[in-house]
Amino acid sequence: MITRYSREVMARIWTEENKFASWLKVELAAMEAMAECGLIPPDVPARATGLAKIDVSCILEIEAKTHHDVAAFVDQVAACLGEEGRYFHFGLTSSDVLDTALGLRLTEAADLLLDDVDELLAVLKDRAYAFKDQVMVGRTHGVHAEPITLGMKFALWYAEFQRQRQRLVHARHSIAVGKISGAVGTFAHLPPECEAGVCRRLGLASAAISTQIIQRDRHAEFFLTLALVGASVEKVALEIRHLQRTEVREAEEQFAAGQKGSSAMPHKRNPILSENLCGLARVLRGNALAALENVALWHERDISHSSVERVIAPDSTVLLDFMLARLTRLLKNLQVYPENMEANLKLTHGLVFSQSLLLALINKGLTRDTAYRLVQRPAMRVWQEGGDFAQLVKDDAEIGQHLTNAEVAAVFDLNRYFRHVDQIFIRVFGE
């Protein structure tokens, strides 16, 4: 049961208050690590932790003069520390703080997204088993192909989001990294042991090598992964949109009491949630492209990536959080119409059994091309003139030379299409 909504917990990660709080975590961890390395007096970190306070309005006021956000932050906090202020930001460069704190916030966001995916997976599994035996027609190119079950659609989506979860875990690992290596990554003023102590305290890995910044291929992987998850959300939403078309109407989004589908047409019930998700997936892809363009920077660093990340980090994480929650609710409340599935399955008067008939004739010794043309002849009559495919097959003298009526009847047995569904479910969900 989803109890959290994107505009709350996820958005809180990207507030100014939490940004400065994450910077302070890095700074205080650095003081502890420096004390541990004997670079500053051992009693300084505890006193600094007790005195340090963040005043957002004051920081912004200072930034209006300095035009440098980290410098303004350092000035405001250091002023709270008195004598200990001289050790605040000691030996650090801005990106030591910015990139390490960004790693903290992105991993926090990734954890929330993993929770979202887990909630979605639970609904997908529940619905897959609920509709495991609900027969419907499968479509390729939008045209009726062969029978499947609705549960198989949900099982397919479950397997895909399992893969997306694995990608998200890997992407989280890639950005759960910090650096305290100085202006060009040489540890000129603080030793690698200090960086290791900071990252250990923050639950991050140390970048094996960095410049002034953590390299942006890591972040590109993260935002590409968010776009990939969004693509799977879009895939499911697009299918719902197709299934809700008037001519199909095998499933549709829940239509609440008092809801209006159109300002002009009172009869309308539109797949607005799914359409919304398809559109939002485009934003994630656009942000992923921006993250890719952040990888190449001048020499040991420029700041062209910084302005981009201030937009795409909150936007992409909040957006995907919202999308996953919306999709979960949509699928949990999806309205399913078995009677329409049955009617649509019969719409082509048995043509969905054509491959079974083809294989039965091949098994009688016919070449594939000969069997194909034998089956295609009555099939095209059904397309063009109507009629029942099974009856036309029984009436076809040439087919009758190879198959008895009982063998034809076996070809048109619906159950034979689903004899492996249980095995498929075991492959997807385990025993």
Q: How are the SSEs placed, and which strands pair?
A:
Layout: H1 9-13, H2 16-36, H3 44-51, H4 56-66, H5 69-81, H6 94-130, E1 135-140, E2 143-149, H7 150-175, E3 177-178, H8 192-202, E4 205-206, H9 217-244, E5 251-252, H10 272-293, H11 304-332, E6 335-336, H12 338-345, H13 354-363, H14 368-385, H15 389-395, H16 397-400, H17 405-411, H18 421-429
Helix pairs in contact: 2-3, 2-6, 2-8, 4-5, 6-7, 6-11, 7-9, 7-18, 9-10, 9-11, 10-11, 13-14
What would CATH call the homologous superfamily of the domain at 94-257 and 267-340?
Answer: Fumarase/aspartase (Central domain)
Please provide the ordered H/E string of secondary-structure elements. Answer: HHHHHHEEHEHEHEHHEHHHHHHH
In whole angstroms, how far apart are the ends? 24 Å
How many helices? The count is 18
Shape: elongated
State the low-pLDDT regions, or none: none
CATH fold name of the domain at 94-257 and 267-340: Fumarase C, Chain A, domain 2
Structural class: mainly alpha
Helix content: 55-70%
Radius of gyration: 30 Å
Number of beta strands? 6
The first-level CATH class of the domain at 94-257 and 267-340 is given as Mainly Alpha
For the residues shown, what is the average pLDDT?
94
Order of strands, main sheet, comes to 1-2
Please sum up the structure shown.
With 431 residues, the chain is mostly helical.
